[in-house]
Design goal:
The chain has 381 residues and is α+β, with helices and mostly antiparallel strands. It folds into three domains: 7-119, Acyl-CoA dehydrogenase/oxidase, N-terminal domain (Butyryl-Coa Dehydrogenase, subunit A, domain 1), CATH 1.10.540; 121-225, Beta Barrel (Butyryl-CoA Dehydrogenase, subunit A, domain 2), CATH 2.40.110.10; 230-380, Butyryl-CoA Dehydrogenase, subunit A, domain 3 (Up-down Bundle). Helix content is 53%, strand content 15%. The chain is built from eleven helices and ten strands. Strands 1-4-5-8 form a four-stranded mixed β-sheet. A four-stranded antiparallel β-sheet has the order 2-3-7-6, with helices on one face. Helix 4 (66-79) runs antiparallel to helix 5 (81-100), helix 7 (228-265) packs antiparallel against helix 8 and helix 9 runs antiparallel to helix 10. The structure holds flavin-adenine dinucleotide (FAD). The site of flavin-adenine dinucleotide has 22 residues, from strand 1, strand 3 and helix 11.
């Protein structure tokens, strides 16, 4: 077992940390206030190769593997979980191309996605189907050389910034038959709808996508008809859950830094509050949660890089690290006392952002079902 980063990974971590502190940190307050997505930062990230790390070299990528994605998400989310979330969904949007697209589709779309010239997302959720995607009612009817899409997606990350969207739609009366389509911004009959007003992730758009007789050429079908849900669920189970765990790592690291700083600086009765065991216990809990979440997430990413089964490992990493982020953000707010709920301190932002990790890429209940089913199956062998 080797727990160390390669030299390349160390350099990546250092470079992303510098970028996050220089380019992202000065914009956090503005994002909190305006809730606007910083597209110029996304473009700069693309130019720095941040979206290319897990794309093969022949499509303009850097071929560094899944752990490189986690390193980037951790460092960016340490400064801004909102920018981390947008980034994780760019990776999610790239995943169906890597896993299931044809050679022509890869050549057409991956180079611009690698450079961040085009931004991506995946659209599965509808009002009638979140945890249970078989409730999807958006339909795609084949007419000549096109599919005609009608329906409405909700809660889609990067809804208004994404140029290339993998959309899952019903293509048959069979209740379990769905297909995945590449929809591009500007296609006739497609438009983003309303933007949600969320408690956290300010600076990362979550919104609706509307398809009204949207014309999608047949060559934009990914895989075969009927493969859609399998393609989307693989992307969500492996890349999406990996990404949410990566964002949680950044929040946990920020919790630890903020908690330690405040505990040392806040003087009461002539002593810093860090002398109190109650404060120390919270700091120890945050450290333990960060280190455990890191081990789970890095190992799952390592399995993915080795081409081994990793869906359950990512469900474990996603469940553990996102729940830990929620609990540790509360501990951080508690350490701050009354200052914890004041908007000028980061603690409250971490607390609000952490809760948004739970529903994204499947709620904790859904991760528990995945983990329990696998455990019960293994117990039968
Ligand atoms: C910030 C954010 C970003 C998102 N980004 C995207 C995106 O980019 N693309 C996309 O397609 N979707 C996205 N989503 C949607 C997300 O995947 C769904 O919100 C999530 O899957 C839950 O679905 P739901 O909101 O409909 O809740 P529901 O499915 O209605 O769940 C409600 C409650 O019931 C529980 N529940 C449901 N089924 C079961 C069960 N079988 N057993 C036990 N408990 C159950 C849930 O855990 C939850 O507590 C995003 C959501 C958020 C909040």
């Amino acid at each position: 077992m080797d727990f160390s980063f390669t030299q390349e990974q160390e350099l990546l971590q250092k470079g992303v940390r510098e970028f996050a502190e220089k380019v992202v940190a000065p914009r956090v307050q503005e994002m909190e206030e305006t809730k606007n997505a910083p597209v110029d930062i996304y473009k700069a990230m693309g130019q720095n190769g941040f979206f290319a790390v897990d794309i093969p070299k022949k499509y303009g990528g850097l071929e560094m593997g899944a752990l490189a994605r986690v390193i980037i998400l951790e460092e960016i989310s340490r400064v801004s979980a909102a920018v981390g979330m947008a980034t994780q969904v760019f990776y999610l949007g790239i995943a169906p191309f890597l896993e299931a697209a044809s050679e022509e589709q890869k050549q057409k779309y991956l180079p611009s996605l690698a450079k961040g010239e085009k931004l991506a997302t995946v659209a599965v959720t509808e009002a009638s189907g979140g945890s249970d995607p078989t409730g999807i009612v958006t339909e795609a009817k084949k007419e000549g050389d096109n599919y005609i899409l009608n329906g409405r997606k909700i809660f889609i990350t990067n809804s208004h910034e994404a140029d290339i969207i993998t959309v899952v739609a019903r293509t048959s009366q069979d209740p379990l038959q769905f297909s995945a389509f590449i929809v591009e911004k500007g296609m006739p009959g497609f438009k983003p709808g309303r933007k949600e007003n969320k408690m956290g992730f300010h600076g990362c758009t979550t919104g609706e996508l509307i398809f009204e007789n949207c014309i999608v050429p047949v060559e934009n079908l990914i895989g075969k008809e009927g493969d859609g849900l399998k393609i989307a669920l693989k992307a969500i189970s492996e890349t999406g859950r990996c990404g949410m765990a990566g964002v949680a790592l950044g929040i946990l690291e920020s919790c630890l830094e903020e908690a330690v700083k405040f505990a040392n600086e806040r003087i009461l009765g002539g002593k810093p509050i860090s002398v109190h065991q109650a404060i120390q216990a919270r700091i120890a809990d945050i450290r333990i949660a960060l280190e455990s979440s890191r081990l789970l997430t890095y190992r799952a990413a390592w399995l993915k890089e080795k081409g081994m089964r990793c869906d359950v490992e990512f469900a474990i990493a996603k469940y553990y690290s996102t729940e830990a982020a929620v609990q540790c953000a509360k501990k951080t707010v508690d350490i701050y006392g009354g200052y914890g709920v004041m908007m000028e301190f980061a603690a409250q932002r971490l607390y609000r952002d952490a809760q948004l990790l739970i529903p994204s890429a499947g709620t904790s209940d859904i991760q528990m079902i995945v983990i329990a089913r696998d455990s019960l199956k293994k117990g039968k062998k």
